[in-house]
C-alpha cells in the first residue's frame, strides 16, 4: 500500500502566500484618472469636407525650384541637429533591445581558479587529512580549486512588469522617429522660408539700385535748374541727402543678404558660401495651391501629434510597470558545472559535477515609500501626457486655421499693393514732368519717390509673406517628412 503524502503544511504556506499577496494588492495607492479628449472639429471654417490634402505630397513635389530642392536635399543629409536626432533614434532602439533582454533568462559562463589553506587542527582540517581518491594519500595542501560552468537567472514576469517596460520603450522608439519627422518638417520649412527671404532681399536691392539711378538723374536736373536760377541750393541739398540715404540702404540690405545666406549655410551644414538662386522670377512666382483636407487628418499627418500620442500610450504602460513593483517578484536561479582541486579530475563525472536550482519569492513589505513615489510620479507624468496630447491637437488646428486666414488676407493685400505701386510709378513720372516745367516743387518729387520706394518694398515683403504662408501651410498640415 502506497504511503500518502501529508499536504497540510503546503496548504498552510499557500494560504499564507495568498493572504500576503492580497494584502500587497490592497496597499496599492489609488490614482487620479484623466481621460484624453480626442475630439476635433469636423471641418475648417468656410471649408468643405473634401479629404484631398496637400500634406500628402512629398517635398520634392511641392517645391519645384531646383535651387531650393538642392538646398533641402543637402540639409537632410548634413544638418547637424537632424543627425543628432538620428542618433537619439538609435539610442531608443537600443533601449528597446535592453528592455526585451530583461525578461529573458540571463545565462553566464563562469570559470574560476583559487587556492585554499585550511588549518590542520580544525574539524575541517582534520577531516581532510586523508582522501579516498587514493587511499593513504593526504589531501593536497594548500588546496587548489578549479571551476567551470554555467549560471542562469530568470525573473518570471508574472505581472508583466518587464514586458510592459519593453512595450513602453518600443513606443518611445516610435516617438523618437516621429520627433525626427517633425524636425524634418520644420527644417524644410525653415530653409524654404529663408530661401524666399533671400530672393526678396535680392529684389529689394535691385529696386534700391534702380531708385538710386532715378534719384541721381533728378539730382542732375535740380543742379541744372539751380544754374538757371529755377531752383535753390536747398533743393540741391535735399536731393543729395535723399540719394545718400538710398545708397546707405543698399549696404543694410547687403548685410541682410549675407546673414540670410549664412543662415541657410548653417542649416545645410556648410561654411559660409554663396547660395545659388534665381531672383529674377520672384515677382511673378505664384504660391502653391493648398488643399487643407479635413481636421481629423492632422492626427495622422502631423508628426508632433503622433509623437504626443505615442508618449501618452507609453506613459500608461509606465503606470502598469510602477504598479507591478508593489507585487512579489519570482526569480529562478540555476547553475551547473564542474569543480575539483586538480585539473585532471575537473571533467570527471559524476564526481566533479555540481548543479543547483532555487526559486525566490521577493515582495516589498516595509518602507515602500520609494515605490509609492515612483507610482505617483508615473501617474502625474501620464496626466501631463494627456494634457500635452490635447494641447498638441489644439495647437495644430489653430495653426492651420491661422494660416488659411493668413493666405487669404495676403492674397487680397498683394493685389492692392500691386495697384498702389502702379499708381505711385505713374505719380513719379507725372511729378518729374511737372518739376521740369516748374509746376511742382522738389518736395513733391522727393515725397513721391520715397512713397514709391516704400510701396515697392512693401509689395516685395507681401510677396515674401505669401510664399512663407504657402510654406508654413504645408508644414502645419503635416507635409514634408514623407
TrEMBL record:
Subcellular location: Cell membrane
Alphabetical list of InterPro entries matching this protein: MdtP/NodT-like, OMP_efflux
Coiled-coil intervals: 72-99, 443-470
Protein keywords: Coiled coil, Lipoprotein, Membrane, Palmitate, Transmembrane, Transmembrane beta strand
Record membrane topology: Lipid-anchor
Primary site of residence: membrane
SUPFAM superfamilies according to UniProt: Outer membrane efflux proteins (OEP) (SSF56954)
Family: Belongs to the outer membrane factor (OMF) (TC 1.B.17) family.
NCBIfam families linked: outer_NodT (TIGR01845)
Listed name of the protein: TolC family protein
Organism: Zhouia spongiae
Amino acid at each position: 500500500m502506497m504511503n500518502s503524502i501529508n499536504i497540510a503544511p503546503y496548504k498552510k504556506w499557500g494560504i499564507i502566500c495568498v493572504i500576503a499577496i492580497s494584502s500587497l494588492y490592497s496597499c496599492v495607492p489609488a490614482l487620479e484618472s484623466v481621460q484624453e479628449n480626442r475630439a476635433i472639429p469636423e471641418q475648417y471654417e468656410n471649408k468643405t469636407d473634401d479629404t484631398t490634402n496637400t500634406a500628402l505630397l512629398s517635398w520634392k513635389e511641392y517645391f519645384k525650384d531646383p535651387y531650393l530642392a538642392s538646398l533641402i536635399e543637402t540639409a537632410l543629409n548634413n544638418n547637424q541637429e537632424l543627425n543628432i536626432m538620428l542618433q537619439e533614434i538609435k539610442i531608443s532602439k537600443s533601449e528597446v533591445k535592453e528592455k526585451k533582454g530583461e525578461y529573458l533568462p540571463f545565462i553566464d559562463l563562469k570559470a574560476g581558479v583559487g587556492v585554499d589553506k585550511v588549518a590542520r587542527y580544525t574539524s575541517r582540517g582534520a577531516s581532510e587529512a586523508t582522501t579516498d581518491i587514493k587511499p593513504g594519500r593526504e589531501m593536497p595542501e594548500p588546496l587548489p580549486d578549479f571551476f567551470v560552468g554555467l549560471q542562469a537567472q530568470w525573473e518570471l514576469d508574472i505581472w508583466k512588469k518587464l514586458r510592459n517596460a519593453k512595450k513602453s520603450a518600443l513606443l518611445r522608439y516610435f516617438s523618437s522617429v516621429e520627433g525626427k519627422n517633425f524636425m524634418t518638417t520644420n527644417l524644410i520649412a525653415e530653409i524654404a522660408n529663408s530661401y524666399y527671404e533671400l530672393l526678396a532681399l535680392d529684389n529689394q536691392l535691385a529696386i534700391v539700385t534702380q531708385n538710386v539711378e532715378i534719384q541721381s538723374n533728378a539730382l542732375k536736373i535740380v543742379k541744372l535748374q539751380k544754374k538757371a536760377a529755377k531752383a535753390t541750393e536747398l533743393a540741391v541739398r535735399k536731393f543729395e541727402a535723399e540719394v545718400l540715404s538710398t545708397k546707405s540702404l543698399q549696404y543694410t540690405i547687403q548685410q541682410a543678404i549675407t546673414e540670410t545666406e549664412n543662415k541657410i549655410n548653417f542649416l545645410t551644414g556648410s561654411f559660409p558660401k554663396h547660395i545659388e538662386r534665381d531672383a529674377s522670377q520672384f515677382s511673378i512666382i505664384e504660391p502653391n495651391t493648398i488643399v487643407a483636407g479635413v481636421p481629423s487628418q492632422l492626427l495622422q499627418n502631423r508628426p508632433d501629434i503622433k509623437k504626443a500620442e505615442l508618449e501618452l500610450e507609453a506613459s500608461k504602460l509606465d503606470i502598469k510597470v510602477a504598479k507591478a513593483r508593489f507585487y512579489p517578484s519570482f526569480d529562478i536561479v540555476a547553475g551547473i558545472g564542474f569543480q575539483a582541486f586538480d585539473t585532471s579530475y575537473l571533467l570527471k563525472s559524476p564526481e566533479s559535477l555540481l548543479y543547483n536550482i532555487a526559486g525566490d519569492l521577493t515582495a516589498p513589505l516595509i518602507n515602500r515609500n520609494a515605490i509609492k513615489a515612483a507610482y505617483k510620479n508615473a501617474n502625474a507624468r501620464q496626466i501631463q501626457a494627456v494634457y500635452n496630447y490635447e494641447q498638441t491637437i489644439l495647437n495644430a488646428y489653430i495653426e492651420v486655421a491661422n494660416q488659411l486666414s493668413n493666405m487669404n488676407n495676403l492674397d487680397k493685400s498683394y493685389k492692392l499693393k500691386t495697384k498702389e505701386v502702379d499708381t505711385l510709378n505713374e505719380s513719379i513720372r507725372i511729378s518729374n514732368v511737372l518739376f521740369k516745367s516748374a509746376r511742382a516743387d522738389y518736395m513733391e518729387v522727393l515725397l513721391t519717390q520715397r512713397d514709391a520706394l516704400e510701396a515697392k518694398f512693401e509689395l516685395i515683403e507681401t510677396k515674401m509673406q505669401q510664399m512663407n504662408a504657402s510654406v508654413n501651410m504645408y508644414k502645419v498640415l503635416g507635409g514634408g517628412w514623407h
